[in-house]
Hints:
alpha+beta, elongated, single chain, 20% helix
Amino acid sequence: MNKKLLISIIGGLLLCSSIFFMGYKRVETPKELYRVYLDGVSLGYIESKAELEAYIDEREDEIKSKYGVDKVYLPNNLSIEKEKTFNKNIKTPEEIYDEIKDIAPFTISGYEIKIKGVKEVNDEEEEETYTKTVYIYVLDKDIFVDSIDETIKAFINEDEYEAFKTNLQKQINDTGKIIENVYIKNAITIKKTNISVENKIFTNKDDLSKYLLFGDASSEKKYVVKTGDTIEDIAYKNKMSSNEFLVANPSLTSEDNLLYVGQEVNIASINPAFKVVEKDYVVEIQTVEYNTIYKDDKTLVKGKEKVSVKGENGSIKVAYHLTKENGETVNLESESSTVIKQPVDKVILRGTKESMGGGSYSTDGVVANGIWFWPTIKPYRITSPYGYRNGKLHAGVDIQPTNGKALNSNIYASNNGVVAQSGYTSYNGNFIVIDHGNGWFTSYGHLNKRLVSVGDKVSQGQVIGKMGATGHATGVHLHFGLWKGAKPYYPGSTSYNPLKTLKFQ
């Protein structure tokens, strides 16, 4: 081989080698790294996600100690995505930790409980809705289960509830009550998740039970009992129902419990996070009160009265299904009734004879302490008393017959008067207001039918409507109210408890 050819071959090989190495630099392989984002904003790259997680867990001993956990996790708003990149600007776990420790709360493993349909009050419109969703966080779901059980006992007799759960209720032989069902009305979901330590996390049953009963408000607001105080009076003055007062004071079991001067009681308003529904079956003997009938007698001087027939109460055995929500009766469905003894009406002769000395007779039952007519058929049950419920005044009593004749049963005028209102509202449904003179009015709400019009004169015991469930009503009943000064809810009107103000026959 000649010298020139050899030099050409060597030169060619060197040129090919140079081209090869230059091409190798242009196709350099990218490195696999992890890109860290906080709320969608990039913080940079790290080599290992596991190393960052381990570093955070190692540094957060304070969180572990506070909640009694053995591991701390990344913030929920921190995301880490694997990427292939030529970027060589790699951060250490310590650098990322220093950037996020004061602005992104770390997380611990636990459970998120979502409760739908929680009560929400619109103060401006004074309207209650059940559209709120509440989130509760616990480390152990058994804490929530146990707290639910404790909260249920605030609304249901503990012994009766335990007998129901263990299937040890005594069957009804003659009269009595059994619990048919107990359940939570709200939709509740539980899921395992990493919880931000920025949230309120419940670690024990007692704290969670208080929250489930009282909400975010303080569960402790004390009142010192004074001379003459009763549970009913204290509850009313603090815009509570007697049932709400008893829930806030579990050591007191009945509205009739005696209080002593200097005793401290809790008057914190309850705001349950859910509705406990209790369905009962009740068989009982009820008294059927007699009616009083007035008859004119021309032999008696006007203004004089004489008892012609002495009234006698009757009795009836009734069976019905009762529905309660958080201890308050919301519906009653009669099943059967058996008359044991018919009542005997009291008959009073009322004089019509004119007297030389004159005389007068007042039909104003409040002023004259006269007898007022019960506005529904008998027997009955007061399903919701006069007083405060959820901080709002229930200005009247709810009455439901217990003998199976509720819907379209008669509603009676409680006394003589003139119909001042007869109409419909979304809350009261069909309603009637009667003006009895001297500033006194009675109101009749949720009627199925109205049988009188504005301006009609009505007499005591006259049928003015039929019982129903129109308007904002959970079941068939009569809402019966007593007012003075002006028509109900008008400026200058004041409501009274009809059961304590009037004398009924």
